[in-house]
Amino acid sequence: MSTASINNWCLTSVSQAQSSLIKSSTLRPSIVARLNSPASPPSLIRNEPVFAAPAPIINPNWREDMANQSYEEAIEALKKLLKEKEDLKPVAAAKVEQITAQLQTPSDTKAFDSVERIKEGFIHFKREKYEKNPALYSELAKGQSPKYMVFACSDSRVCPSHVLDFQPGEAFVVRNVANIVPPYDQVTIF
């Protein structure tokens, strides 16, 4: 085997003795190119959260929003706005009454329970999907042979099964950061 390095590329050819070890019945020249880089590959794993977008407000709460300003600042800003735009007085009065009523009404909404949400999601799947199509899930329990392999981003806002309307067993789905498909490192090419 001979090796030559050109501009950090390593070119290797296989000798006849080595090629006899290869299952190929004919002898043909082979060249392998491998990029040798002394620098370590970039690290994509961080010990801090990644925020692609601001967190959505699922259930806005007036009490939390109003806590950002003092009461006096809010009143002064409202007075200034109403002086500039006289036609907003009836709208502002109605809104103030609505907010006052909301703040005085005791909220009987429970705090969001993430574990309960996951349980409810599973129960919904069981009732609406699994129990309504037992033949499909019985077949999937025996094996799978999907026609597709989809590489998709791990972003929670985009679910490949929903976007592409895949049913269980139709596709292998690989989810990772930024849809990156790592290069296949094949040492020799014949």
Key descriptive features of the protein:
alpha+beta, two-stranded parallel sheet, elongated, zinc, 36% helix, single chain, 190 residues
The major beta sheet can be summarized as: 3 strands, antiparallel
Return the string of H and E elements.
EEHEHHHHHEHE
Number of domains: 4
How large a portion of the residues is in β-strands, by DSSP E? 5-15%
Number of contiguous helices: 7
Structural class: alpha+beta
Strand elements, count? 5
Note the gap between the termini. 14 Å
Alpha carbon gyration radius:
31 Å
User: What's the arrangement of strands in the largest beta sheet?
Assistant: 1-2-3
- Work out the helicity level: 25-40%
Q: If you average the pLDDT, what whole number results?
A: 72
Low-confidence stretches: 5-11
Shape: elongated
Provide an overview of this structure.
By secondary structure, this protein is of the alpha+beta class. It folds into 4 domains: 2-35, no CATH class; 63-104; 114-143; 144-180, no CATH class. It has helices at 16-19, 62-66, 71-84, 89-104, 114-130, 134-142, 160-163, and strands at 2-6, 9-13, 31-35, 148-153, 171-176. The strands form 2 sheets. It has a 3-stranded antiparallel beta sheet, with no helix packed on it. Strands 4-5 form a two-stranded parallel sheet. It is elongated, with a radius of gyration of 31 Å. Belongs to the beta-class carbonic anhydrase family. It is an enzyme of class 4 (lyase).
